[in-house]
Predict the 3D structure of the following.
Amino acid sequence: MPTIIRDTRFTKIKKHPVQQLGLVLLLMGFAVLIGMLSMGDYILTPSIVERSVVDSTHQAVLKSLLEPLYNKPIESDWALSAVLDDAFENANEQLTEKPIDDYWGRSYKTYLIKYSTVGLPAERPMLLFWLSIGLGVLGGLLYILPKLQLIPGIKNNHIFHSATTNRGWVGWLLGSFLILFYILLYFFPYYITTWMLICDPLAFWLKGSGATEWFFYGLLYTLAILVMGVRMMIKYRHSKYHKLRTGSVMFFQLAFAFLIPEILVALNRPYYDLKNIWPLNYDLFFEYKINEFLSNGTLGMFMLVWGIALVVLGVPLMTYFYGKRWYCSWVCGCGGLAETLGDPYRQLSDKRLKAWKIERWMVHSVLVLAVIMTAAVLITFFTGHSSLLGISSYDLRYWYGFGIGSIFAGVVGTGFYPLMGNRVWCRYGCPLAAYIGIVQRFKSRFRITTNGGQCISCGNCSTYCEMGIDVRWYAQRGQNVVRASCVGCGVCSSVCPRGVLKLEDRGDGKARFGEVKF
Amino acid sequence: MKHVVIIGNGIAGITAARHIRKGSDFRITVISGESDHFYSRTALMYLYMGQMEYKNLKPYEDWFWPKNRIELVTDWVEKVDVAQKQLVLRQGEPLSYDELIIAAGSRWRKGGWPGEGAKGVHGLYSLQDLEAIEASTAGIERGVIVGGGLIGVELAEMLHSRGIPVSLLVREKGYWASVLPPEEARLVGDHLRQHHIELRFSTSLKEVEQDAAGRVQAVVTSAEERISCQFLGITIGVEPNIDFLKGSGIETDRGVLVDEYFRTSVSGVYAIGDCAQYRKPPIGRKAVEQVWYTGREHGLLVAQTICGKPAAYKPGPWFNSAKFFEVEYQVYGDVPSRLPEGWEWFYWQHPQKHQALRLVWEKESGKFRGVNLLGIRYRQEVCEQWIISGTKIEEVVGQLHRANFDPEFHSRHEGEIRNAFSTQTGRTIKEQKKKWWVFGA
Ligand SMILES: Cc1cc2nc3c(=O)[nH]c(=O)nc-3n(C[C@H](O)[C@H](O)[C@H](O)COP(=O)(O)OP(=O)(O)OC[C@H]3O[C@@H](n4cnc5c(N)ncnc54)[C@H](O)[C@@H]3O)c2cc1C
Ligand code: SF4
């Protein structure tokens, strides 16, 4: 077998000076972001306890238990966190009726640590914001913009020679960092309170209250989609299809996922991302959500009806006319991140038949699980019985949220971008994708048309399919591509050097599948 | 059980194997020396450019072969003994066959220039060639490529991807001018120049200079110019790879001579793909067709013949495609480089972008004969139907939107093309109005 070629001596290809500067700024911003986590000191005061511990019983007990700590500087959030853990444990000896559980504990700890921060992050949050996130965005843009000088067209040179995009050391490092980040975000938010602090000015300006870990995450997520969206637009600037759909995901992320929900909260209305559809939006029918909708008059009612209408009417109709892409590569936030931040990793998706088999089992199981979980939650809501066939609906939803909502969608879904490609979640885990996929496969006008016998089996289409579809398998047989998982990103059509593939909504009969010609 | 042996695991041999399996229970063995598995030769450039890895080049996963009971042997066939129905292999034991398909493909052609044997002089056909090119191009200052055809441009793009300056020597007056009409040739030439490929037209090679170590250090062109370089690519064409058949009794000329059923002069022995030469070429086709699509078609047909449903080669309208850096090229039907007697043509080019279209028809009857496309994609199905049914050019121009295969939202130029067509030719277009209420029509 040929030894496969890995030559890293492309000495003549240097990065543009502006790109080099961009890279330096990006790394500096990143370093500041990491560095600031160990920057502050922490001083606890009674008023901080009052602000952070909202439950009055808990507050009373904790206030006296924490007394020895007041007004004494503590060096690190780790140290403070350990002390607080002890305090909660002691408190729980007294609070046998209503103990501080994990959920409360995490929230208290996060606020207590955040508010007791002193030093630079508390005094100069804006400065740190610009030096980290600001510098990162600027550096990213400077790195991206010089690519405008290249002649427009597909440029995938050296993707498999690169340590970043072919699971080299940079890829592993990035993946590990992302995974660690998600673990902190979901399970240990109290170690990243500095990041919330530096977002406080923006959060106050936008919605009149401070930043939570979710505000910070939402901001970072949105910026990632915007900056990498610019990259996407430049990379595919010869294709209006990509420019439009990238513009679309950028808009939906910024407006629908980030701004509108925050503004709703500022107006004392329910937090609602109007484009997030059940079962991806798995807590839509949780009782606190339903109660919130019901107590919010016409707007609340509209939100509830809108949410249900999207599931029963929106998805089937739109998918019938336009295929899965109307959502997954034009609107969805997870899809939006995958199509922008994740684009450099699309070639890492597994194309093997085995992977397709695993995918079908997995993604449909998650859909079934989501349906069961939601049904149980609704039964509890309507009947008041919390236990179904011996399983508590509370446990069910907790474990769904933990396993699917946090671990799968976040830690694995995004953390594994540089290792398993940018659509791990969408492909193996997203219950909404499974649902839309069933519609697309069986009742839709969408297909990828193969242009007669023009395919030369080169494999660009399969290589760059983020969903791991072996597009070539169909194209080289002269057959159209109709697959449940296809998100209609259109990259196969762009990278095909022979003009073989076209995404079309062309009628739903048998002809949609096309015949095997070769 | 009948044992069908196929020499060559390229597109021709593998298509034959797959379809023999579909149509029969015969024992199938494929012998090939170049690689263990079928891979896509057309993607060799992407391997070098780091756009794909070798595993991406394989159209079928490795389990595919045992599952479909297609036995693979990696070895070189040294001799075919038609009397004994046996193949002599370089390493393995001789192999017997009941029916034999020769699908040995091509090899790159040399020019016979002095010094051509120097180190650093390569053609591009096989994986081994690619590996050698990889080694020879590491850290070099300049490469020269002789031969302005499709593979020449691919090789130029490969070197370009490594930041190696390239001079491309083209014998004709324009890029690929033996196939492309002058305007298309110019457009592609301009595009190559934009990518800093140095084009030297009406220029060939005279000799290759070597250094003390026997490595190429410069070439001298037919214009007596010396270009110093550390790599020379020879891409002046390919020729059937059939030396091993010498003395076998199988009749050959340039390629293995076959009839329309791909039968050679020896019964039970067939030849397909690049290495076959038609005794009577189909109308409008060359005697040796060296493209992917024809190899696939041959494989399909020979499989039917072997499975007892003899199928003759009656190709439809010619088609092909390529890509020159960013510019995609498609052709449907007959578009010669010079206008034949009694034909007319029309050429449209985008004022700024590298997009063009050329329509060709018969003057008298107005019958549509073919179309060249640069930077625009057309549907094969529609173009073929126009050609086969002899649709009048006026109707074709009125229906161009039916053929357009560009991605959604891409700018379309049918209006401009129609206007230019009527002004230039004075013909009145028969418009077929697009019915807006028919989805996707
Ligand atoms: C770089 C490149 C790019 C190309 N791009 C295009 C394109 O874009 N479009 C297009 O239509 N065509 C293209 N072609 C041409 C196309 O690849 C060929 O027409 C096609 O591969 C021929 O297929 P085949 O099956 O006849 O032979 P091959 O693919 O050559 O397969 C024959 C195999 O048999 C093996 N073999 C030969 N002799 C022996 C022996 N004695 N013993 C054992 N094994 C043997 C060879 O090593 C080889 O692996 C390209 C060719 C090259 C080299
Ligand atoms: S990219 Fe195009 S030519 Fe290559 S395998 Fe896919 S469809 Fe065929």
